[in-house]
Backbone:
């Protein structure tokens, strides 16, 4: 079986920690790889490599940094299929979806190719007699990135391309559940000519994460994962004096008003709820149906949900693959089996057998799709982030009732409104408490040149990832005040506070 170690200084680094974790092929239930779990010393070695590379990389010209990024983009383009296959083999999502993930990650590499435009400073001349002031942005140093299992290539690409473009060096700690795609991204960066130590990958679990959070040579931490760990990361890393952006979990509501095109709304609800087996932080997990929209919408969603084809991600006929682990699959199923006892109506029950054909997948971590109606706050299916193919429908009488429900959520990642009424959509955009809003768009993941981030317990920190916020996060400001005195006029001694 393949053993995956670390990638430090542009070379494979075999782990000596003595601890490994299993990486499964979720479609077959067989172990795919074993991944090294780093010791503190191994994390320190990766940080030391990044620190040693920092001075030279931060002083490398913008022309050279962008030349690397353009070569990297070309290599990623050439290896799209291979990276997507690695994602499918360890995460389980279908190949077309994995290709979409790679493309969305590459958007940030493309943004990073234009970094000179983003790093232009500001200059004010003659702010006082013969005095000029300029503001510039400089890299922060060694940046650590910690990523979740659900986007094993895209989320790392939200982080390191922009961080490197800004002149930082990087240590990435990918999810130990599906680490191979991130490792391959680092190998390709070396192939594209990235100098040694600029991008390092250390595989591991809590031991590695906690060392990165306390390491004195790590200046900034980008984290994406669940809310409890995001909160931990923010608390520990800020206590250690680092800047932090920690993106957490979600429970995304899709509001459907009675005037919406219900076929369009049902298509979008099904795509956004069950795509990637519901393991997306921007998945729609709650539909809030207002008034007369309710019954007709539930019927339409149920019809579409029952028709979905579930199977291994390698089969082009599959629309939805397995879940990440057996334990997670069983936990997700428990929300469906427990829903009726809590008062919900189980309209589609996905807990029975789902696979047709594919005997090689008999032990895979598959689960069918479920639709729960008449869900209310207080039920576990509503209160928890399930992170699986379970869609809950909550009924509301009015727009105001629906909005109040959405705004009472402890999360505020994405949300969407489906309506033909521009005025209602405009009110919703302004009144809803979430970081990303879709109008007739169910998964409003911003394009690379806008930033991604939620509100409330979906993000701890101030700055969102990528886009202009990403550039701000990976740089720090410096303001330079310059005077070239007239040799004839030194000005003399003046103990007063400088003013204009
Ligand atoms: P997770 O929080 O379990 O793991 C994320 C990372 O944290 C991994 O690298 C993991 O090794 C590390 N980690 C796990 N437990 C830790 C601990 N006790 N101490 C220190 N580090 C620890 O998340 P996951 O299950 O991999 O991913 C799914 C979660 O991520 C969901 O909650 C989803 O909503 C969220 N997510 C959020 C976004 C977003 O943009 N807001 C995007 C993707 C995923």
Residues:
């Amino acid at each position: 079986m393949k053993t995956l170690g670390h990638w430090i200084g542009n070379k494979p680094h075999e782990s000596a920690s003595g601890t490994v974790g299993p990486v499964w092929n979720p479609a077959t239930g067989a172990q795919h790889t074993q991944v090294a779990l780093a010791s503190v010393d191994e994390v320190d070695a990766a940080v030391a490599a990044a620190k040693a590379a920092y001075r030279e990389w931060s002083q490398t010209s913008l022309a050279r940094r962008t030349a690397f990024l353009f070569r990297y983009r070309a290599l990623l383009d050439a290896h799209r299929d291979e990276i997507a296959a690695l994602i499918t083999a360890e995460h389980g999502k279908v190949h077309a979806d994995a290709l979409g993930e790679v493309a969305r990650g590459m958007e940030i590499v493309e943004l990073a190719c234009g970094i000179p435009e983003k790093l232009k400073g500001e200059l004010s001349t003659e702010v006082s007699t013969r005095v000029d002031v300029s503001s510039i942005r400089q890299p922060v140093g060694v940046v650590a990135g910690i990523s979740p299992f659900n986007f094993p290539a895209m989320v790392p690409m939200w982080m390191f391309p922009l961080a490197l473009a800004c002149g930082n060096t990087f240590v990435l700690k990918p999810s130990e559940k599906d680490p191979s795609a991130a490792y391959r991204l680092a190998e390709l960066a070396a192939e594209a000519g990235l100098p040694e130590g600029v991008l390092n990958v250390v595989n591991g679990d809590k031991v590695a994460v906690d060392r990165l959070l306390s390491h004195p040579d790590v200046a900034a931490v980008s984290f994406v994962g669940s809310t409890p760990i995001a909160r931990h990361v923010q608390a520990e890393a800020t206590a250690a004096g680092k800047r932090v952006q920690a993106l957490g979990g979600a429970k995304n509501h899709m509001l459907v008003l009675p005037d919406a095109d219900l076929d369009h709304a049902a298509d979008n609800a099904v795509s956004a709820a069950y795509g990637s087996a519901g393991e997306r932080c921007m998945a729609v997990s709650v539909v809030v149906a207002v008034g007369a929209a309710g019954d007709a919408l539930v019927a339409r969603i149920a019809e579409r949900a029952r028709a979905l084809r579930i199977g291994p991600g390698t089969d082009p006929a599959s629309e939805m693959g397995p879940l990440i682990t057996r334990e997670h699959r069983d936990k997700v199923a428990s929300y469906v089996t427990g829903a009726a006892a809590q008062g919900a109506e189980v309209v589609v029950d996905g807990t029975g057998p789902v696979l047709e054909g594919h005997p090689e997948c008999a032990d895979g971590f598959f689960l069918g799709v479920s639709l729960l109606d008449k869900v209310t706050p207080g039920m576990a299916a509503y209160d928890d982030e399930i992170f699986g193919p379970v869609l809950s429908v909550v009924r509301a009488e009015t727009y105001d009732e629906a909005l109040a429900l959405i705004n009472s959520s402890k999360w505020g990642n994405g949300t969407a409104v489906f309506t033909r009424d521009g005025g209602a959509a405009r009110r919703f955009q302004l009144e809803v408490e979430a970081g990303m809003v879709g109008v007739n768009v169910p998964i409003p993941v911003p394009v690379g040149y806008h930033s991604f981030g939620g509100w409330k317990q979906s993000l701890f920190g101030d700055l969102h990832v990528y886009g202009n916020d990403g550039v701000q996060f990976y740089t720090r400001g410096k303001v330079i005040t310059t005077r070239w005195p007239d040799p004839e006029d030194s000005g003399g001694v003046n103990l007063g506070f400088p003013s204009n």
